[in-house]
Amino acid sequence: MSNKLSLLLLGQSQVGKTTLLFRMSNAELPTSINATIGVDFTRSTVYVNNEAYSVILWDTAGQEKYSKISKNFLRKADGAIFVFDVTSRDSFDAIDKWIESIEDVSFERKIPYIIIGNKTDRPDRMISREEGQKYAQGKKSEYFECSGLMNSGDISKSLNRIVDLVIPTLNQFVEPLEPITKKDKCC
Ligand SMILES: Nc1nc2c(ncn2[C@@H]2O[C@H](COP(=O)(O)OP(=O)(O)OP(=O)(O)O)[C@@H](O)[C@H]2O)c(=O)[nH]1
Ligand SMILES: [Mg+2]
User: Fold this and answer.
1) How many CB atoms lie within 10 A of CB 140?
2) Which residues of the chain have pLDDT under 50?
3) Topology, domain 4-169
4) How remote is the CA of residue 44 from the centroid of ligand 2, in Å?
5) pLDDT digits (tens, 9 = 90+) for 57-82
6) Residue 80 forms beta bridges with which residues?
7) What is the CB < 6 Å shell around ligand 1?
8) How far away, in angstroms, is 56 Cα from ligand 2 center?
9) CA dist., res. 105 & res. 53, Å (int)
10) How many CA atoms lie within 13 A of 12 on its CB side?
11) What is the mean pLDDT of the chain?
12) How far is the CA of 131 from the centre of ligand 2 (A)?
């Protein structure tokens, strides 16, 4: 089995995806981060049961004008991380739309995903942990919280978990479409 996998980070602009990516790859956080243009990537190594997995983390742009590009990358991803900002209800509501996109492509194969509420360091929180958890449960998914800025909370735990969920789905056998036989033809 291959020990390589790719994960996609999706969510509204400014929720902190790029910041989380720096943290997940243990890279030093730059003093300022520009809005992502198109799609970018970084690498990380995750250990599951003492086995090393080489992970490519695809960072997408949250800005609406890039949403088509971001969604297209779902086809190439083994798993997804949906991020929202716990101080922005708008960004929380937007998660639904991103999840729908994964459902659009998942007829081809199953793409596991998790949900992260970011910016827990901020005092002006709008979405409680309970609300995030309840939402994730409703989607049969799992919820994590963190602060990318402070490098605190569930950052590595969430990365480990999504890798864990993806491993059994790697090298999934996709049923070939049945060839049309004479029998199937109506006339
Ligand atoms: N307070 C706080 N600010 C954060 C946190 N994470 C990111 N930010 C800030 O939020 C802003 C946006 O962060 P980015 O990581 O660029 O957000 P993004 O989701 O990649 O945005 P796009 O590339 O436009 O989609 C930056 O000013 C970050 O410093 C956090 O955990 N807490
Ligand atoms: Mg970004």
Assistant:
1) 6
2) none
3) Rossmann fold (3.40.50)
4) 17
5) 999 988 988 888 887 888 889 999 99
6) 8, 113
7) 13-19, 33, 35-36, 61-63, 118-119, 121-122, 147-149
8) 16
9) 24
10) 17
11) 89
12) 25
